[in-house]
Write the structure tokens for this entry.
Amino acid sequence: MKPPLKAALAAVCASFIFFTLAAEPPLGLPPVPVPAANPPTPEKVRLGEKLFNDQRFSSTGEVSCASCHDPNRAFTDSPFVTSEGINKLTGTRNAPSIINAAYYGSLFWDGRSPTLEDQVRHPFVNPVEMGLPDHGPVLEVVRSDPEYLVLFRAAFQKEPSQITMLEVQQAIASFERTVVSGDSAFDRWYFGGVEDAISEQAKRGFDVFRNRGRCVTCHLIEQDQALFTDNRFHNNGAGRIQEAGAKLARTFLEAKARGASVDKAVLASPTFSELGRFVVTEAPGDLGAFKTPTLRNVAVTAPYMHDGSLETLRAVVEHYNNGGVARKGDSASEFLSDEIRPLDLTEEEITALIAFLQTLTSPQFIR
């Protein structure tokens, strides 16, 4: 790892590692869930950090996990609309932040990975991300690099020939579970009782969030914690599936039956990418449905939606205010989730709601 990059990452992540390995999570968050098969240790986290930043795991030697999940950009690649991989190839999805991904019930916009450990293996071999033909080059590096040999012995008590992708995945997932952030201005007000932590306008926006805006239906807030996601999938009207969804679904299923790779078909094809959760469940009700993202740090992770099609928070709020369509009065998609319908918010309510959303940024990500 290059020293400047390591220093920058260490500066940003110090508090994350402290909170994950300590007894208490940041204000506003529950304890980080940890799988019994991969308990966290400082050695695994240290190894995972190095793996996360290693560009040798791409076919060009220029792309790492951190390329799309940059700690200096709240672990996204903002302001890119869709992520840029090897040879500046672009995928079809906007890179979600890995902050608080430890709390997700599934990974990727369509939820096709059930765990962080499983998610880790996919980008290495995706043709428009890191572009490796298989995981062999990853194992070749970690089994021969002197620094990795020391780190794998410390983390897993494994000698070079014993290292497999399982250990690689577990180490990166362990690091990603340290990337948690709460303690925002909202948390200090709502959970900490600091009345002047947010403005009166933001407080009015929170009322809109919970009531007339109905945002809390999908972006959950509980009595003593707030993940701001229901970990479910919804068609909110964004994207192009709204036009020819049924025909596209049939085409995808035919391609899958012929042996097409779901990963490659979804991420390399702008058309199939719009199918969303359907590619996993094949359920008609999941056409164009995508995972509810957390709203934490949303003010610094533009653009928005699975395809990066909305540039600003105002554009997002107006999209929902219009009932999941670009312009008020347009026809809604037949695939639209039941939760999405016009809100009829006033200009004052929209402005207040945006002010509330801006209070969800954790201190270390305020630009």
User: Anything to note?
Assistant: The longest helix spans residues 3-21.
